[in-house]
Amino acid sequence: MSGELTKAVADLQEEEALKLANEWLAAGVDPNEVLTESRNGMELVGERFGNGEYFLPELIYSAEIFKELTEIIKPKLQAEVQTKRIGKVIVGTVAGDIHDIGKDIVVFMLDISGFEVFDLGVDIPPQQFVDKIKETDAPIVALSGFLTLAFDAMKETVDAIKEAGLRDKVKIMIGGGQIDEQIRVYSGADAYGRDAMTGVSLAKGWL
Amino acid sequence: MAIQTATRESYQEHLKKLKGEIEKKTGKSTEQLYKERQKRLWDAIELKQPDKVPVVLGGTYFAAKYAGLPYSSAYYDPIAWKVAYTRMITDFAPDTWGIAGGSSGAVLDILQAKNVKWPGGTLPPDVPQQNVDAEYMKEDEYDVFLEDTTDFTLRRYLPRVYGTLEPLSKLPDLGGRGGGLAGLTSIFTTPEFQEIGRVLQKAGEEQKKYQEKMGNLNKDMESLGFPPMSGGFGGGAGGPAFDQMANSYRGWTGIITDMYRRPEKLIAALEKLNRKQIAMATPADTTRPGPKLGGGGAIHRGSDRFLSKQQFEKFYWPTWKESMMKSIELGYTVSIFAEGFCENRFEYFLELPKGKVMIRFTDTDMFKAKEALGDHCSLMGSVPLTLLQTASPSEVEEYCKKLIQVCGKGGGYILRTDTDYIQEAKIENVKAMMDAVEKYGKY
């Protein structure tokens, strides 16, 4: 285990990564280690995205590669060593908005970065966020939205969390193509991010 | 007149009433207003200094909301929607209007469209339309697409995009039918194909009805003194092939994996789409005065945060530049809607001929754009909707003042909101934007 797989994933060498994983599994390497190597590669992808070396295509393509890797690794896992999770995050696209590309990238990057992510999906009414906070005790909520109607839906969601008496128990971030400081103030969220890595650093900063 | 019960006749009455209102308020005839506005727009497009900074106001749904109609009216009640739209434009009095109108909701219902969700159909009446990003072409279908795009469209694309056209996938290959059509006709006696026939006829009738009701909005606007941005839009060689491929066929994840797994095929498909749209382009009407806008198109996935420069140069720019150069050669000024952040794209815009390009920005820093491109392209934009939705009128005024003073310097500039989907904007803020142009926009 020399970091070769990590490098192949980080460099987006799809064929090489799959070949290595298959060879290692056939040679009896612990599948958990193969998975860890793959995850480490994804973390590097995230870093490179964060420093501007990689763009969205690299991020999305790496996710495709990682998906393929987990498909061949998972069946071999006797018992998956639970990856140590550093914190819980609830993510969802707010009511009225069905956009999921940005949200899915955030979910993926949070997951890769070690968070336990509760992805509620798209078009999520405020109450569902409230219920999920109560159910999971997650200290971080991330609201996604692309449409301009999302500004109000985000505000309503933050208000609902407030009304449920949970506002001081959670940090709330918002994100999406049109989100800016103006909307952060308007919605009552704690912070905003315009890309997935900002979301990850915000979440890490709030732990 | 109750807007919901508007008829063709009452709409004509409504237009007459608006015309009277406008002439009384401005002390000018609508013909005169039309000419003044047209000159103002033409000057700005041609990088000249007009008498005043021109301003565009769009808002298909904003107009509906302003008049108390649901957004779905643009899809299901075109006459009532037209009453609302002409009212809104009359009240705010921009130099020209922006994106206007929906499409027939009944047709989308009948066809069971899956690539779009629309208000009053697959969405609630007050939620704006949204496009569904999906793989309408599978990753292993490039060869079919490249070999025979029409066959691909007929037997694979249409059945996936329109529920009612699913049976088309059962058609045999229609290419090379040396033996004529006779042998094929028996398929049309099956119940599912008879149903397609019925459905298409019904869709056609609904489409016709919608078009008749929508009428000629350009002409109605003209009667109220509002010219189009530039007469005879269109005719150019189309927009970025990359976005057409991503939006209509492969979806975002699909096209990204293609960039890595089958770049040659992706590029071949982009070139094919581009050849087609270049072949369909027609020359600009040079007998008509003023700039002719045509070609250009919107940047969806080509902005700074979607593609790296390297990716942009490999997949996005070559075909797009080719189509824009063709449009310019045919006598057009290309009109680019640069959505997202496009500061890293300035250098490419400068490769296009000076004075032949108009660019509307959204998130891009307008002040940087003015500095980098102001001598080369006419610029349009960009009052953020976030401001119009959440700020105070005085903040909006302040922002517009700065835009006018910095970007408007020397002309070649048109003020506009970052998006035309401004339905969430506060009405007083839209008014503050229009007032700012009157207050600070005169040269």
Question: How many helices of chain B in DSSP terms?
Answer: 18
Give the DSSP E fraction of chain A (strand runs of 2 or more residues). Answer: 5-15%
Classify the secondary structure makeup of chain B into a structural class.
alpha/beta
The protein's oligomeric status is heterodimer
The N- to C-terminal Cα distance of chain A equals 31 Å
Contiguous uncertain segments of 5+ residues of chain B = none
Q: Largest beta sheet of chain A: what is the strand line-up?
A: 2-1-3-4-5
Task: Supply Rg of chain A.
Answer: 18 Å
| Strand segment count of chain A | 5
Structural class of chain A: alpha/beta
Cα shape of chain A: elongated
Give the helix proportion of chain B (percent range): 40-55%
- The coarse overall form of chain B would be globular
- Biggest sheet details of chain B: 5 strands, parallel
Could you please describe the fold and organization of this structure?
The complex is a heterodimer of chains A (207) and B (443). Chain A has 207 residues and is an alpha/beta fold. In chain A, 55% of the residues lie in helices and 12% in strands. Chain A contains nine helices and five strands. With 443 residues, chain B is of the alpha/beta class. Helix content of chain B is 51%, strand content 7%. Chain B contains 18 helices and nine strands. Chain B has helices at 8-26, 30-45, 60-66, 73-76, 78-92, 105-111, 142-147, 149-161, 191-214, 217-223, 241-261, 263-280, 309-329, 346-349, 366-373, 385-390, 393-407, 427-440; strands at 56-57, 96-97, 116-117, 130-131, 293-299, 333-338, 357-361, 378-380, 413-414. In chain B, the strands form three sheets. Chain B has a five-stranded parallel beta sheet, sandwiched between helices. In chain B, strands 1-2 form a two-stranded parallel ribbon. In chain B, strands 3-4 form a two-stranded antiparallel ribbon. In chain B, β6, α14 (346-349) and β7 (357-361) form a beta-alpha-beta unit. In chain B, α12 (263-280) packs parallel to α13. Chains A and B meet through α4, α7 and α8 of A and α11 and α16 of B.
